[in-house]
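> forwarded from #structure-qc
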């Protein structure tokens, strides 16, 4: 019953999706710090590998890029929701689905 009531409130749903986007990004960053000594060998993203190589095998440049990307994406989605709530909710939903796929990949691989 509570979940049905929650889904009737688009603002609450948007906030939950928006926070989930940020949570997965923070978790991904945590894993980058936690496994920083082996990330240069295990990173699958070519841009991530490039950033690690450009930084002499260290991960801080990659983490800064992830942080800037997360803040930028979260801000843009929030601004879109502020001016066009339905579109913002749709975009947040799509991004949350992609972040869920990333989270599952990180946890299961």
């Amino acid at each position: 019953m509570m979940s049905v009531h929650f889904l009737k409130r688009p603002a609450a749903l948007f906030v939950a999706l928006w926070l989930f986007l940020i949570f997965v990004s923070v978790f991904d960053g945590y894993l980058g710090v936690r496994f920083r000594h082996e990330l240069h060998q295990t990173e699958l993203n070519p841009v991530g590998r490039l950033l690690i190589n450009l930084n002499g095998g260290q991960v801080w440049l990659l983490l800064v890029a992830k942080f800037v990307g997360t803040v930028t994406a979260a801000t843009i989605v929030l601004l879109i929701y502020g001016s066009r709530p339905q579109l913002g909710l749709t975009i947040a939903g799509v991004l949350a689905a992609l972040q869920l796929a990333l989270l599952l990949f990180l946890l299961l691989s």
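QC bot note: The chain has a mean pLDDT of 92. The chain is about 85% helix and 0% strand.
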